[in-house]
Amino acid sequence: MEVHLLSFLILYFAVHVNSKSDIRIGYRVTLAIPIEYSVGFIGRAFLMQTNQIEPNFKVALSIEPIDGKYSCSLQVFLGDAKVWNSGHYSPFFTSDKCVLELTKDGDLQLKGQREQVGWRTGTHGQGVERLQILGTGNLILVDAFNRIKWQSFNFPTDVLLWGQRLNVATRLTSFPTNSTVFYTFQIQYNKIALYLVSGKLNYSYWEFKPSKNRNISFVELGSQGLELFNDKHHKIAQILSPKGIFGNVQPRLRFLALLNKTGNLGLYFYSAEKQKFEAAFQALNSTCDLPLSCKPYGICTFSSTCSCIRLLTKENNIDSDCSKGFSGGFCGRGKNEVEMLELNGVGSVLRANAPVKVNISKEGCANFCLQDCKCVAALYSVGKCFVYGVVMGVKQVGRGTELIYMVKVPKGVHVGGHGKSGVKKWVLVMVGLIDGLVILLVLCGVGCYLIQKRRNNISTTDNNN
């Protein structure tokens, strides 16, 4: 069976090719790629769906615009939420057509121009008979005896579905747009954690550990929360959605997701009243606790706004880019060309894996970072020194904390000729000004509301008289 579909250049194009829950060998469907590139275009052919009450699972062949090119992928949706994507880690780009074929020897393939294979399951010669979508959202290839030869649950992306399992050393991964860093949700023996990854650098920004140092073997999403199990399949810990926020009825959770934009982790249920998915639990509830709430070299303030660690030299002026003066890096510069800027009342949500030095002074920690050209910041805490290869996740903290955050800067930077101390004052003044401005706007708004309310009362009284 072969189906050809033409995609027209519109904002969204979708057809239902097949409403069954399986596709057999020899099946082939083709979507044409638009001649001109359009940012808003999405071409989608729905091939299969489950027989469930909405929202149900649907399988689609999709064309999507990415960075000036069109990607071709096989996707699984729960309602409108994308829960699996064959091109999540490595998009397959094509310029002519997007083809899905379940070959006669049982290999599921995505093809482009000149029958170029961009993705495949690698199941040829294993007796595969058909492709199915289960009620759990698991996309599977089975043989004549219904034995599973391939399943999407073994290739997690950024979503964990109800009934799906994540073992130790597996992870969910999401990629924020226009960024060289990405997020991961990792299952480790002693904890589950969220990480910001930049090259070979990994920094956690949220974690959960079972009590009594019990080891984790795998995690699953239950109807009320995320459940952690040991190697004997005994539940040792769980993260439950808060009680009481839904009234007397606790809705069933449908999936866990690692969000691309924020890096936050959420447990989601379907609201029939609002006809959309909502978060029953989120790992991070404050904007400033998110690793990329501000740009690199930005500071998230108490009012959840961003201020920059701005440096003013003779060569450059103050710019909207917080990385101005830092973007070139420090490798290639001598030790005498850089110094450490201590930021009072500032910390980081990023946690280095382990201290590089212990029983060390603050000055020793600063010198250690200065001697390593890849080190751009250091965090000192009671004799422990942590170093960073990125300046991200920086936020304003209360005075009197035991943490001291230091940033490497070019030597001699100044603001208005005040040198290093001037930079400290500039950072603190900018943070204070932003918070003060927000408070002033709030007070003005409250004052205007009270004045208007008083005028309305006076006007009502005059009308009554």
UniProtKB/TrEMBL annotation:
UniProt keywords, alphabetically: Disulfide bond, Glycoprotein, Membrane, Signal, Transmembrane, Transmembrane helix
Entry's transmembrane regions: 426-451
SMART domains: B_lectin, PAN_AP
Cited SUPFAM superfamilies: alpha-D-mannose-specific plant lectins
Any Pfam family: B_lectin
Bulb-type lectin domain ranges (all copies): 44-154
Cleaved signal peptide residues: 1-19
Matching PROSITE patterns: BULB_LECTIN (PS50927)
Top-level taxonomic group: Eukaryota
Protein name, as recorded: Bulb-type lectin domain-containing protein
